[in-house]
Structure formats: C-alpha cells, structure tokens
Amino acid sequence: MEKELEYSVNLTGVSFLLYELKQVIKLEIDGLNIYEIKDKVIQENIFEYKFTSSLKRIAPTIVKRMEVLDETLKEMVLKEPLETGKAINLYAIMKTDRLFFEFMDEVIKEKLEVNDFVIDKKDINEFFTSKAEQETKIAGWTENTYNKLRQVYFKLLFESGILIDKKSGTIRQLLIDENLRDHIRNIGDIAYLKAMGDDEVLL
C-alpha cells in the first residue's frame, strides 16, 4: 500500500455502498469539491436516507473511497456493467481500510490460491486473533467490535460477489473485466487484484 493506514473500526458503521459512491462521483463531475459534496449529500439527502445521522456518518467514508479512484476508475464505475462497479468499489474499500485489505490478502486470497472455496466464522476469528497478537490497538477492541466487523466483512464479501452463498459460506474468484485488470496493473496496484482473488494474477 502507498502509505500505511491506521487500523480502524470505521467499517462497523458503513457497508458496501456502491450506489452512494456513484452519487458522489456524479457530484464531483458536476464540479463540486469534497467539502461541497459532503454538504450537499447531507443537506439535500442525496442518498435518500431516513436519518440525517446516517448521512453524516457515511458521507466522509464515501468521499474517501472516491478520492482513491483515478478518473479512469471513476468513469468505469458510472459507465461499465454492475460487476465492474462492484470490483472497483471493493478495491476502494481495501484502499481505505487497512484491516479489511489484510483480511482479503491473508484470508480470501490464500483460500482461493489453494482452491478452498468456503469461509466461515472460524476463519475470520482466527484472522482477528492473529492481528490482536500483533497489534495492541486491535487487542484492545471489544468482543462487540469484533462481532460487528465480522458481520460487515461477510456482507462486503456477499455484496461484492465473492461470497455466493451465505449459509454454506461458498466463495468464488471474481471475474475481473480485462480493461479494469490492465488499468489496475498499470497503476501499480496488482496487490489489490491478488487480494480480490483475480484468477489471472493468481496463476
């Protein structure tokens, strides 16, 4: 990763949010800066949420995800098929959340490399335990925090298309669009393709 992100629990309050990402990209295309985007999202309820508190919590996260995307990726989110948008959104989440990237890289990628297509709570628990042994900050999190993160991770896997059956925990390799793969390779982010389990880079 370009710079070392701090470990955080921000994902406990948000989720996949692809629709919301598309909305903020459109606002930027309309000429708004990040501060104006956040303000417009909240003041005009761009996401059509029931509670303003949800808008205030989520708007900064979505803007951060948008900021890690270059112009090509932003355009692809809006114009390419849904599956491509999902892959780019997953990439943005990994770019903005260190722990989730490490989960994808150390758990999902490794499972797919050995053709292990099932994930369960034990896998995530072992990941958290390992991280807690390495990082005092993570070790200080409550069991409730771990439970929330576990729920969010499963949700992110499902909405991205990696987890295809919640009950059995069956996962699959994402089918990454060739143009998207080439672009991410060219900007030096092949590690994120590998973490997503892209079959072309795992070979």
From TrEMBL:
InterPro entries: BrxA, BrxA_sf
Pfam families: BrxA (PF08849)
Official protein name in the record: DUF1819 family protein
UniProt source species: Salinicoccus siamensis
